[in-house]
Write a structure and sequence with these properties.
10 strands; aminotransferase; EC 2.6.1.16; alpha/beta; glutamine amidotransferase; binds fructose -6-phosphate; glutamine-fructose-6-phosphate transaminase (isomerizing) activity; 15 helices; transferase
Length: 366
């Protein structure tokens, strides 16, 4: 049942190219030139008149929500708020008619997310679900939605569900932008085409598995880790840190890289590994100076870079080279090495990656 892999988590990490392909099936045409997410088309009148979007979720799904905010704002120019479902539901949130609430949940059973959906529905919002488990409670409680179709996720630490959620959010933003005319034809075609190439690029990333396993052995001593990213890769930093905490029990924190100088930089010393998502995008120069700030304080830098990068190779301690894509799709590529890093560090430490202590696959308590 683990398909020859030692753990479900590793199997699910390696399934991602196929999962993303399945997620896009019937939604992106074969030529890679058009996208249609049927729930968006069916409800376009409601969605195009939205005053704002609020995305509610917990944990890894909340990290996907942050990426969703950037995508919907970029392509559709709607205001988007992202909320922890637990905080949203307990404070009598302000919801007006015309608000659209997107609920993201792999299991479709998370108690706080379900309660947030009920609360928003009672206050008149239109509810859109993004879930994996077909027929689960959250999809049944929503007005419409899109399944991510990545198959059952058994490993407690969420992996393929995250990339599936980000893929659906990308298709959602692009379909809506097309309906709203807030995206040009050229940009639309470029992003759709690039999205259709992501499964092949993910396969290239997975070829790095052995080198990431080797790298992981070096870091089992660490008691702390910092993860940094900017823009679309800021939520990836949060997700990388969460994966490490969950399965290796190493304390890790993710930050938007520019926040370092507002406090966390005080933590940097020779014992502090810092993982920096430093692929080519419009904030590349800024991320180089962030790396220099860490090196000046003798932190150990593990950088995720774009293939062919030479600048960062000269300053970082370790580099993982990744295929190039456009900034808004980078999370689909950069998340994978961080999943593998967490997995291998946990394995080196002898931890049970599929059943980490204190965690359950779906949190049906409040
Ligand atoms: C992290 C993880 C949890 C879940 C969270 C939400 O690896 O598995 O943080 O992401 O409990 O679960 P769902 O998406 O099922 O609502």
């Amino acid at each position: 049942e683990k398909g020859g892999y030692p753990h479900f988590m590793l199997k699910e990490i390696f399934e991602q190219p196929d999962c993303i392909h399945d997620c896009m099936r019937g939604r992106i045409n074969i030529e890679g030139t058009d996208i249609a997410l049927s729930a968006i088309i069916d409800h376009k009148e409601k969605l195009l008149h939205a005053k704002r979007f609020i995305i509610v979720a917990c944990g890894t799904s909340w990290h996907a929500a942050l990426i969703g905010k950037y995508l919907i704002e970029k392509f559709c120019r709607f205001p988007v708020e992202v909320e922890y479902a637990s905080e949203f539901r307990y404070r009598n949130p302000v919801i007006n008619p015309g608000d659209v609430v997107i609920a993201i949940s792999q299991s479709g059973e998370t108690a706080d997310t379900l309660a947030a959906v009920e609360e928003a529905k009672n206050k008149g919002a239109f509810i859109y679900g993004i879930c994996n488990a077909v027929g689960s409670s959250i999809p049944r409680a929503t007005h419409t939605g899109s399944y991510i179709h990545v198959g059952p996720e058994i490993g407690v630490a969420s992996t393929k569900a995250f990339t599936g959620q980000v893929t659906v959010l990308t298709m959602l933003a692009l379909t809506l932008a097309r309906e709203k005319n807030s995206i040009g034809n050229e940009e639309f075609r470029q992003v759709v085409h690039e999205l259709s190439t992501i499964p092949e690029k993910m396969k290239k990333v997975l070829e790095k598995n052995d080198s990431i396993a080797n790298l992981s052995q070096i870091f089992t001593y660490a008691h702390n880790f910092i993860y940094l990213g900017r823009g679309f890769n800021y939520p990836v930093a949060l997700e990388g840190a969460l994966k490490l905490k969950e399965i290796s029990y190493i304390h890790a924190e993710g930050y938007p890289a520019a926040e370092m100088k507002h406090g966390p930089i005080a933590l940097i010393d020779t014992e502090m590994p810092v993982v920096v998502v430093a692929t080519h995008n419009n904030q590349y120069e800024k991320i180089i100076s962030n790396i220099q700030e860490i090196k000046a304080r003798k932190g150990k830098v593990i950088a995720l870079v774009t293939e062919g990068d030479t600048t960062i190779k000269n300053i970082a301690d370790f580099c993982i080279e990744l295929p190039k894509t456009i900034p808004c799709l980078d999370p689909l590529i950069t998340t994978i090495p961080l999943q593998l890093l967490a997995y291998h560090i946990a394995i080196c430490k002898g931890k049970d990656v599929d059943q980490p202590r204190n965690l359950a696959k779906s949190v049906t308590v409040e």
